[in-house]
Protein 1
Amino acid sequence: MNQYRLLCLRLKIAKMSSAMKIKGVAMMVLSWAVPGLGHIAQKKYLRGAVFFVCIAAMAALGLALGGRIYPAQTENPLTILAFFADIGNGLLYVLSRFLPIGVGDMKLATFDFGTAYIAGAGLLNFLIALDAHDIAAGTKS
Amino acid sequence: MILRSHVLSMVLYAAFVSIVLSFLRRDDRKGRLKYGLVMFAVMVGGAVLFGWLMYLFTL
């Protein structure tokens, strides 16, 4: 059964025109940069608005709680995982590299929760970007 | 400082995650509501249960 599903999926991907593939990637990048924008661009207004509000609220709460956005570094291997989660925040991550946001204050009792909020928002945004890609590619409504 | 309560932080976190996942996984309104509520209950209930489980093994 799983092999049949895999075959169906491969056939679907093979049928996709190059224009659809480009659109799918564009929507994915758009959704990654600003959560929900990929859905709004495809006229999924409610879904896009809900995604934007939730992810923006999570990221804003994370920053307000003193959470940290981790840069790419190899000194502490554990932070590599946090970096991959944080990079899902799109433009917020890019901005954090140039502006003093997401520096993190370890003295605060809420530091861990803030960091978890930011990482959670990034991970959820990866799923949202993949969803926007699937809608553009026609594999999901 | 906002959200001093860790329980409130956890509940709010679970609520946001449940909403996003329900919109990702379900397409109809009723399905989203049911899926979201189940996800929320599992996350909050699981965290409380795990918290009590850890309490049993305090040093």
Note: The CA atoms of residues 51 and 57 of chain B lie 10 Å apart.
Protein 2
Amino acid sequence: MAKELWKGNEAIAEAAIRAGCRCYFGYPITPQSEIPEYMSLHMPKVGGIFLQSESEVAAINMVYGASGAGARVMTSSSSPGISLKQEGISYICSAELPAVIVNVMRGGPGLGTIQPSQGDYFQATRGGGHGDYRVIVFAPANIQEVVDLMQDSFELADKYRMPVMMIMDGMIGQMMEPVEWKKPPVNPEDLPAKPWATTGTKGIHEPKAIHSLFIDPNESNDHNMRLDAKYQRIMADEQRYETSETEDAELIFVAFGTPARLARAAARLLEEEGIKAGVFRPITIWPYPYDALYQAAAQDSVKAVVTVEMNTGQMIDDVRIAVRGCKPVSFVGQAGGRVPTPQEVVAAAKSALGR
Amino acid sequence: MAIVYQKSKGLTDVELHYCPGCTHGIVHKLVAETLEELDVLGNTIGVAPVGCSVFAYKYFNCDMHEAAHGRAPAVATGIKRVLPEHIVFTYQGDGDLAAIGTAEIVHAAMRGEKFTTIFINNAIYGMTGGQMAPTTLVGQRATTAPLGRDREHYGSPIRMSEMLATIDGAAYIERVTVTTPANIIKAKRAIKKAFQLQIAGKGFTMIEVLSTCPTNWGLTPVEALEWLNNNMVPAFPLGVFRDITAEEAK
């Protein structure tokens, strides 16, 4: 199929509709507002629901209600708005409902800036709201990957009955790239039934209740342990990553999203200077591909591991967990809306190698 | 032997956790009877709040969805938009609806969301132990207003029914109470009308029920009913504040 030129945010929205999403609730915030704008025009054309909410808090709770009623539903926002959604995400995780949440990240903290950032890594990968929970987090590095991962996001959300988050820096939302629509559109009517949804007893089954209240501490503990067992299964089965030239590399860059592209550019510059550098790119940042990264870093050829991030160093914690001290780990990055240059990344790599 | 009265099929057999003398039980019964009489129990999804009625999802004999504090109208919006042919209601207290969830209820009314809200106003936070509510009367004592609500410090109680009645999307707004058999009959009539208008697709409907909290008011159940009549009714007048059918009939 021919490639088409798509703006990131609009591609996200179109990909969701093609993935069978028929329900979107959201609130305007830069740099993701093209998502609700696109949805407002195109969702009604497929008989879907678009609703602009009064707040991100309301939007995520509309998602909570719609998901409970059985809909394939999503919301999107950018960093400050995702903070507001955390309460609802915690409830959705505990109530075990599927949903897809897109975060087109901007610089923070506070009101921050509208420029691209990866400052929400901790928030996305450590739960973000109150209580013991996780969400599956995809971190695509280009618009094609956003599109390719959207259907997977909805399928995993249904499979594990939990939110799947897709996070990307604002650059991916705002730029245009060629996109190929590889997968056939999903017809929502073909999706598996959701016997847990609250759609009325019809007088034939016992009433169902969607809730997250377990007032008895033993019940609450059992609930948490059961959720954790699910998270452990996901950690075992759903890690995704990509490697580029990591075999026999002298230096390994670790980066997700846009910085992974910068790291590849930096690796090419290093190659011109006779330094073999590879890039390890997690595609899921939760579950994090710890073992695969360890294997790459533990090679005899590797002298240093450098993380490249658009924040002050957040994923580096997971990189250190993965590398387990077998190689030195250092960080290069820019925070709050600035994008690192390949030259800065090259300089950090040389410094890590003592050159 | 003829059966002259029995529990509504709209309630489960789970024992209510409400304090003695609390009027939540009466209101639950009225909602349950209404759903049964309208023959919509199998087609209804209720939304339980956070507050004393947090366990409502165990008591109503229909599918239920428990919301975060104040967010019931947003959850109900999501449900009703996905299932427009179903009956959806929220059951919320004054802290839930008039404090933390003010934005959600106002905007649900603004959009004319076609669900019914049962708003229990007992002028206090019950579940957390008698703290001041936005509906607490001036001078009324609460555990966070031990000397009584001070108008200079906290303003006056908010009248949600009057406020929401100014919104075009609201189809029916009435304030009732359940302090006497006559009032209970009126409350039942109001609740039934609200659900009927929801079924007719008229817009947002809310019935505010002035309710007692003997435990946190520090009164006996009988004294609480008297206190409600003598103090709450003057501050929160009973009556219909918006009725789209009356306007349509003109």
Note: The longest strand of chain B covers residues 170-177.
